Amino acid sequence: MKKIKKILLPVFNYFFMKYCKYLYKCNPRKSAELYVRMNDHRKPNLDNPTDLVEKNIWLALNTDTTIWSRCTDKYAVRSYVEECGLGEILNELYAKWDNADEIDFDSLPEKFVIKTNNGCKTVLIVTDKSKLDYLETKKMLNKWLRKEYGYYGYNGHYLRIKPCLICEKYLKDNKTKYRPIDYKFYCAYGKPVIIEVINERDITGHNAVSTLYDLNWNVVHESSTESDEFVEKPHSYEQMVSCCNVLAKDFPFVRVDFYEIDEKPVFGELTFTPEVQNFSFKVRKEIADNIVLPSIK
């Protein structure tokens, strides 16, 4: 049975993504409704949205999301952060390539991170370059670049991003044996509403635990992936909040991500359409209550 599933699953995924692409091009609203039905098992109310997912879909369908594309682009967002006067929180950039064949691994340090600028879960963490198969790595990276991320759900702003690869400094947090703790601030017009803390994330980035905290750093028990371990408030918490006030002030909603290295914040990314299936509807509505939808012109 496992062998049959292993064979059939890639086939199903292939045709499912073909269908998603067709549906998005024909009817973006129906594409968004399909996403909610599959993840929340309900029909979203897009005419009178009340929770975070519904309001995000409304914004994606009814407003100009050009700036979303720029700020979602993990390479282009760097210039946005600099224009906001916060260049000091950017991680060090080693290189940028349009395809993996341009990579000169000999010029890179022993440890580094390579990621696509326009996707999710397309991150390669290298802690020992000598163990890397350069040819296979380039094949994998080029495969990532060919992914058409954006047709599923309501992520059409990703489709305007020109794919590329970026290589950044490997971040090491001495407070944990795992990858650095990820602090995700859910903001409405620059004001954080709730903070998601991702901890115990392994080297692949696919396994982790998520705990929610309020602005006073009390645990909010409303996540299905909650950890039993209490994570101390980051030393640079107030600076992170201040950065959110600047980076997110012009957006009805955006998630601002940080790491903390040597008690200083390091910018991660801006995300306008985060996956929140592990959040309770109570939390989703709490965030959404702070989002005032603009009038449609």
Keywords:
single chain; 297 residues; alpha+beta; six-stranded antiparallel β-sheet; four-stranded antiparallel β-sheet; 8 helices; 10 strands; 19% strand
Classify the secondary structure makeup into a structural class: alpha+beta
Mean pLDDT: 92
Distance between the termini: 54 Å
Strand content: 15-25%
Number of helices: 8
Which sequence of SSEs, written as H and E, runs from N to C? HHHHHEEEHEEEEEHEEH
Shape: globular
> Runs with pLDDT <50, length 5+?
none
Number of strands: 10
In short:
The protein contains 8 helices and 10 strands. By secondary structure, the chain is α+β, with helices and mostly antiparallel strands.
Notes on the structure:
By secondary structure, this protein is an alpha+beta fold. The chain has eight helices and ten strands. The strands form two sheets. Strands 8-7-6-5-9-10 form a six-stranded antiparallel β-sheet, sandwiched between helices. Strands 1-4-2-3 form a four-stranded antiparallel β-sheet, with helices on one face. Helix 1 packs antiparallel against helix 2. The radius of gyration is 19 Å and the shape is globular.
Strand-helix topology:
Elements lengths: L1 H25 L1 H13 L11 H11 L3 H7 L4 H7 L9 E5 L14 E5 L6 E4 L7 H12 L19 E4 L13 E7 L2 E9 L9 E5 L5 E2 L16 H11 L6 E8 L2 E8 L9 H8 L9
Antiparallel strand pairs: 1-4, 2-3, 2-4, 5-6, 5-9, 6-7, 7-8, 9-10
Helix pairs in contact: 1-2
